Amino acid sequence: MIYLDHAASTPPFPDVVQHVERLLAHPPANPSGAHSAAQAASGILEDARDEVAALLGAQPREVIFTSGGSESDNFALKGPILGKAPSHIVVTAVEHHAVLDTAKWLESQGHEVSLAFPGADGIVDPDSVLAHCRPDTALVSVMLVNNETGVIQPVKAIASAIRGQVPDVLVHTDAAQAMSALQVNFEDLGVDLLTLSGHKFGGLQGTGALLVKDGTRLTPLIHGGGQELGRRAGTSNVVGYSAFAAALRIAVDRREEFVAVTELLTGRLISQIKSSKVDNGDVTARVPHITSMCFEGLRSEDLVMLLDREGVCVSGGSSCASGATEPSHVLLAMGRDPEVARGALRVSVNADCVEAEIDQAASAIDAVVEALRSR
User: Which are the contacts of 115, defined by CB distance < 8 A and separation ≥ 6?
Assistant: First the structure.
């Protein structure tokens, strides 16, 4: 099997697996307890929090551990405005469904939502975002790296523009796809809320974090305990969060190598695919491990199914919407013709992929496209 769907989920680093095995050999106690075993578990948890904060330019108290990106996105959008008078939020039209669907739910609760659209290159102009802001705007959400196209959004410029014109507006960014390829510094980005997901950079599925700028008030989504400084109830996943921190450390330490290797692999793949296709997003402003292309006249679900039969695992777009038969909302927002967008294919590599796999995948893509077009 050739696995080229790392934007959906990437395997844990071997060192992270070993780290987890060591912890599970003596399972941590509940870190909320008062006895020595509980305090030892609490120490592991807080060491993880300290590590994450140090790696991302944040304070430990600004790190809230969660179950993953979707929870963090929900918390980031709902937390600042739940229980308050109806307000206005701005999100981009290319956000992950965890943001878009949350915004839609907030709209059903009486809040207003504005969508900021990108250009054909997939990039959202800071002026476009700022133009949507109003006196009652409470929050703006702009992802750092798009999960389908890999396009990098100018989040720092957007946050700076908002600070200069409407300083009371909170800024959230979903950075789930950014950690392996980009240097991310919470303070430097200038945002108030930042989403992370462990299984996107070599950690475990079911682990994540939300960075919350000190002083930002959030209404908890989960009640029943005082964990995470009273912001998220529930027994802490000590092993998972410790693995999250360990994976983040490895991802940061190996970032330069990751970028160099994946850039070569993605370039090799694109150059070897001979079938006519349309590339999605600005190739000069995207992370190197994610590439998106469209094969006009074909359907994503057919491409993915037949490639799977050839032993190549890819996706049609966001794996969180992999069951959908409608064209990608991201590509439609970029202005792609629906018939072109229906033939989208996302390929995402990591630094452990090898050239032989890339060559086989390119050949398989050409063979599958030819077979479908000859029907």
Answer: 90, 91, 92, 93
Residues belonging to the active site: 320
How far is 214 from 58, CA to CA, in rounded Å? 9
- Element (DSSP H or E) covering residue 88: strand 88-92
Please, what is the average pLDDT of the chain?
96
Q: Which amino acid is at 299?
A: R
What residue type is assigned to position 237 of the chain? N
Q: Which residues lie closer than 8 Å to 68 by C-beta, 6 or more apart?
A: 197, 198, 199, 205, 206, 207, 208
Q: What is the pLDDT of residues 203-231, one digit of tens each?
A: 999 999 999 999 999 999 999 988 999 99
The token duo for 275 is: 């079938």
Domains along the chain with CATH numbers: 2-10+255-373 (3.90.1150.10), 14-252 (3.40.640.10)
Nearest to 229 by CA among 1, 8, 46, 12: 46
Q: Which residue has the tokens 């969660």?
A: 66
SS3 of 237-296: CHHHHHHHHHHHHHHHHCHHHHHHHHHHHHHHHHHHCCCCCEECCCCCCECCCEEEEECC
